[in-house]
Protein 1
Amino acid sequence: MTQYTCDVAVIGAGISGMIAAIRSAQGGRKVLVFERTADERYICNSRLTGGIWHCAQTDIQSDPDKLVDVIMTVTGGNARPDLARAIASDGIRVVRWMQQTGIRFIRGPYDYQSFVLSPPTLTPQIRQWEGRGGDVMLRTFEGKLKELGGSLNRGHRALRLISNNGTVSGFSGEAADGKPFEVLATHTVIADGGFQANQDLINGPITAAAERVFQRNARTGYGDGMQMAVAAGAAVTDLRGFYGHVLSRDAFTNDKLWPYAWLDFVVAAGMAVQSDGRRFDDEGKGGVHMANAIAGLADPLNTFVIADQRIWDERGTYNFIAPNPRLPDWGGTLHRADSLAELAQKAGIAADALVAEVDRYNQAVAAKSLGSLTPARSTHKFDAYPIAQAPFYAFPACAGITYTMGGISIDDHCRVLGKDGNPLPGLLAVGCATGGLEGGDVKGYVGGLVKSSVTGLRAGEEILGVLGAAQA
Ligand SMILES: Cc1cc2nc3c(=O)[nH]c(=O)nc-3n(C[C@H](O)[C@H](O)[C@H](O)COP(=O)(O)OP(=O)(O)OC[C@H]3O[C@@H](n4cnc5c(N)ncnc54)[C@H](O)[C@@H]3O)c2cc1C
């Protein structure tokens, strides 16, 4: 069996793992990164990313106290206060650190987007990542790691932690050629990106029909890290929420229709119904909430987004890579009709029920009594538009999962916590492998990049003793 020895062994070479690795190597530690995928440009969420740094859609340069408030508000008070404070304080610090490491940023089109990876990935073309944002970032990181004496070992899948009474001293796994390997390390950092692509693991906390939830991600997050950590005594938290978007149902058969164009802003202005013509959740909470709600239905593929011409013109064209006109241009199904009854017939929705549901909704919009609908419709985040101006639209929709919000329990030093709440010596976890910040009942989205980059930096500093010293 091949055996490796190092100070710091990192499982997964996305942004969180690479930052943890480089920061540790900057302090003179011997660092080895093990990446499951064998390809030179191994796909992961960090390579496909849109590249926008934000903290719950607020500028990361904002006052940290304000950012803590924003995190607590979007998560319904569910976030661990220490993690919320870490993200709020260090979002800008990690971006400055990345800039010193050679990563370039530009401003994005919206005011909270002060830092977007350059060259931008969010162009009006279909899934462009080569030579852009995350791709350039990961290649720059690998160069930096090598410069510091570390290395990235592709085609190495970690499978089991080496643990003795809760103290972790490395892990074992299998290489792409089928041969076993073992890594002995003083510190092991789990950075495998979440469990979204593992149907067995999302069945239950996220959905009852995993195969009917669209994988809007790199399909590399199998929850290996979480399972290894649990076997070694770690606690997990907030497994129920995911970050994702409402997509055209045709994404299952038409590769052009993911990761964009989302229907989030259309559904947040109009309504979502099942084929019985009835609403099933609060559209006013936005696209991430609705994606979670759709995934939670008995049949997640029985959903339609309903809009009228005004919504399609105003909200369908909002945001980068908007669905109007790209969704139909790229072959996504859009039913259009001059009456709601005809629309229902074209889409396969119960016509009388849809007409009645839209009528109730329009009356509530006019009377500003949307809270009295069943289910209630909120307006504090997104205005409810009447669905009144023909032609009317129905989009067969689905839930697209990007990453799971929950995972391994950590503290603000990224130490993995055991079931008794105490750290497991030798084990850290970072990025979307972790829980405690996002998720919970509210499924509040804080930001995959800010979470992954800050936890990566903090893990490296914890290993070097910098974080503890700085906070003492
Ligand atoms: C299309 C898209 C757009 C996005 N846009 C944004 C955005 O604009 N802003 C934002 O904040 N977030 C965005 N995100 C989310 C963000 O990109 C992710 O949250 C972040 O990149 C996750 O980083 P990570 O290091 O935790 O995981 P990953 O990047 O997924 O890396 C994990 C790595 O671990 C490897 N691995 C898995 N299992 C093992 C194992 N057993 N052994 C060894 N290696 C293993 C995987 O192969 C992978 O390379 C987007 C995501 C996607 C997919």
Note: Residues 2-240+405-471 form a domain with the FAD/NAD(P)-binding domain fold (CATH 3.50.50.60).
Protein 2
Amino acid sequence: MPVRVAVLGFGVVGQAVVRRIVSVPGPLELTHIFNRRIASKRVDWVPAPVVWTESFDEVLAAEPDIVIEVIGGRTPAGDYLRRAIAAGCHVVTANKQLMAYEGPELLAMAARHDVRVGYEASVAGGIPVLCAIREGLSGDDLLEVSGILNGTSNFVLTRMAEAGLPFDDVTREARERGYAEADPSDDVDGHDARAKLCILVRDALGLDVRPADVHTESIRPIRPIDFTYAADLGCVIKQVARAVRHGDGVLAWVRTALVPATSPLAHVTGGQNIVILRGASGNETVLGGFGAGGGPTAVAVVSDALSIAAGSPLTSPGGRALRPAQVVTTARGAFYLRFIVRDRPGVLAGITSVLASHGVNVDAVLQAPGLPKDALPFVVTLEDTEAESVAAALDQIARLDFHVVPPLALPMVG
Ligand SMILES: NC(=O)c1ccc[n+]([C@@H]2O[C@H](COP(=O)([O-])OP(=O)(O)OC[C@H]3O[C@@H](n4cnc5c(N)ncnc54)[C@H](OP(=O)(O)O)[C@@H]3O)[C@@H](O)[C@H]2O)c1
């Protein structure tokens, strides 16, 4: 029996999904394409029997087996998915914001209606990370998930490091080359990675973490000089999403971090993504590939639809026993502090005396030669320290009168 599929949204991902479904022999039979202003969307490569519509009622009235949502945003996409579930349809979505904010409720509703929700494409695009958690790693007790989950930020940081250009110039280039949207805030400010981290934490660790609980920092304050100092320390700078079991709760954040040049995280360049899962028994499993783009994302969407067609329950170990978790945002660690100051005698002594008064030990001081004295960038690295002590010291240091820009603190991970 063919499995009848309706696709909601005929944009970048929707078109790639439809291309896969109509070009690959298999059980999936495309019946409807739904989009607003549908007349402007028609293309001649979609087989004639497929119905083009801007009426969701018409889609539901046809009783599809699977509704694929690739519209994006929480509204009206969430309403369409709830109506599809209530009507007894399985659903597949690439929508990270919807799954991050409303995933547990949608999954609970789907369980009540005895239908399945596929959302592989909502995390790391074409990398089958949720499938790996559900199938290949279900025999382990996963303790940690970390990764580079946003290709736009990774592209911007990679180009800044390569070309020594400031954030604004590289972001403009990223827009021109199709790596960034007109407004890249969601990506560069960490909200996109945060949404994906919440989904990963639920599936991998079985903990219900909501986006608002995850400490999230922007990559905007990073300057080209930071890459120079990071290289001196044997590190690169990356937007890292990380969640680690912490007692009964979880430590979870999205931060710009210094990563050792030898770490798998350091080798992910341009628009690529990586996910590292650490288990109690299996240790580290590293998954990498294209985290976005129509083709890779469509593969994840269509694979979910095929799994549903084959009868897979698509239930992750975490999803079976989800429990609310206390989210911790800071922990012990080493830090990189970058200051840009109007140079004068006593600046370094002022900073180190505040650090000492908070019990924070300095590891090293780095200052490249020949830099301008009216905006002198230098770095202080800290030994393993309680993050709260660092934050309190920095708060006090930021009030000293020699700063040209606010001090920057980056964790050094790995
Ligand atoms: N692009 C990627 O690389 C990627 C990767 C992973 C996940 N995703 C996720 O996939 C989803 C789709 O992304 P996309 O890049 O394909 O977006 P897109 O190119 O903007 O496509 C969205 C489509 O949905 C239509 N649409 C928007 N609002 C609608 C509404 N209220 N009613 C009916 N149709 C509506 C749009 O129509 P108009 O043309 O009229 O606006 C457009 O055709 C999002 O959840 C995104 O986060 C995308």
Note: The chain has 14 helices and 19 strands.
